[in-house]
Amino acid sequence: MPPTDTAPEDPKPAETEGVSTAKGDATKSDATKSDATKGGAPTGDVRKGGAAETAAHLPQSGAPGIRFEKVVKRFGSNVVLRELDFTVRPGERVTLIGPSGSGKTTILRLLMTLEKLNEGVIWIGDNTLWHMDKGGKLVAANEKHLHEMRKQVGMVFQQFNLFPNMNVLRNLTEGPVRVLGVSKDEAVARARELLDMVGLADKENAHPSRLSGGQQQRVAIARALAMQPKVLLLDEVTSALDPELVVGVQDLLRDIARESDLTMLCVTHEMHFARDISNRVLMFDQGQIVEEGPPDQIFGEPTEQRTRDFLQAVLAS
Ligand SMILES: Nc1ncnc2c1ncn2[C@@H]1O[C@H](COP(=O)(O)OP(=O)(O)OP(=O)(O)O)[C@@H](O)[C@H]1O
Ligand SMILES: [Mg+2]
Predict the structure, then answer these.
(1) Hey, which of 2, 73, 122, 240 would disulfide with 81, CB 3.0 to 4.6 Å?
(2) Are 296 and 303 in contact (CB under 8 A)?
(3) Which range among 2-6, 214-218, 219-223, 274-278 shows the weakest confidence by mean pLDDT?
(4) How far is the CA of 300 from the centre of ligand 2 (A)?
(5) Which of 56-60, 154-158, 227-231, 237-241 has the lowest mean pLDDT?
(6) What is the dihedral of CA 55, 60, 64, 66, to 10 degrees?
């Protein structure tokens, strides 16, 4: 790896939380898809479709892996990530667990370029996110490089973050038209397919404020997918939902996980969901990985006391 000699530029919020058909570095997924099981019938926020219908609308091309190399992130004197190293394989689905403040959201925000890293290098596929290669040296990425890299990564947030002044259809078409340069007709056609997939075909003219939390989150998931990301980040996407709306959103994400080969990084406190959706779980504490392994091992036979304490606290809550 070339040496780095310059701090990256200030972070710029991604134009929208989604992104596009990246070229070049994509490697075909080699991760095993889990046998995700259905979590029971949704009550009150039902969508049509299911796995088969979902598959028809999802990107099936190769996804890049992710690598953090000695990543340091500080907020003032608070060192949130301490020389963090980890790798996510192409198409792998990894869940991050750990106590509040352990740095989980910060990791996702660094990948979205919503936060700037202080030290280290983040790779998406064969490309560095915050740096670019100049004559064999890694230098701070310019805006053009960041723009290209952002196209590969989409995120769904706890609080949905839909554009409140736009109807549902426009929430899905705005990014593809403005950021990806897709024609309006194509963006509308794709948006309608995705709305159908998430069971909200009849809501395209509604404004977000007129939708339930579960419906808003399904629009947010569709909006992220409309940008055709290769990497999908999920940050506690059901924790702001009323309990009866959680299952519908989780079912949708299980279908997406099973039927696409997106590389996924998921933060959740819902351990059943984590078990269903992920190939691997990373347990964090104070910005470092305490333990990692397949979900059955981490949830069934954790080796570290810190993990056992954390899981006990989550189960008790
Ligand atoms: N913009 C910010 N400015 C200052 N400190 C921040 C900022 N964002 C995060 N932090 C700090 O970084 C640390 C990690 O925060 P982060 O949100 O990544 O934790 P988390 O693991 O996602 O926690 P939770 O489970 O509560 O969501 C915390 O100490 C937090 O206070
Ligand atoms: Mg968080």
Answers:
(1) 73
(2) no
(3) 2-6
(4) 24
(5) 56-60
(6) 0
Residue nearest to atom 27 of ligand 1 (CA): 100
Tokens 């996702």 identify what position?
A: 108
Atom 12 in ligand 1: which residue has the minimum CA distance? 80
Question: For residue 49, is pLDDT > 90?
Answer: no
- Stretch 190-202: mean pLDDT, rounded? 94
Helices (H), the chain: 51-56, 104-111, 143-150, 168-175, 184-197, 213-226, 243-259, 271-277, 295-300, 305-316
Q: How far is the CA of 80 from the centre of ligand 1 (A)?
A: 8
3-state secondary structure of 107: helix
Question: For 116-126, what is the mean pLDDT?
Answer: 95
Question: Whose alpha carbon is nearest atom 10 of ligand 1?
Answer: 75
In a mutational test of the pocket of ligand 1, which residue from 71, 73, 74, 80 has the highest number of ligand atoms less than 8 Å from its CB?
A: 80
> Strands of 288-293's sheet, edge to edge?
153-156, 231-235, 263-267, 93-97, 280-285, 288-293
> How many structural domains compose the chain?
1
Strand extents, DSSP E, 9-136: 66-75, 78-88, 93-97, 119-124, 127-128, 131-134
pTM for this prediction: 0.84
Q: What is the CATH number of the domain that holds 283?
A: 3.40.50.300
Domain ranges, residue 252: 51-316
Residue 16: inside a domain: no
The answer on pLDDT for 47 being more than 50 is: no
58 Rama sector, left if φ>0, alpha if ψ -120 to 50, beta otherwise: beta
Measured from the CA of 115, which atom of ligand 1 is nearest?
1
- 26: in domain: no
Q: Which ligand 1 atom sits nearest the alpha carbon of residue 103?
A: 18
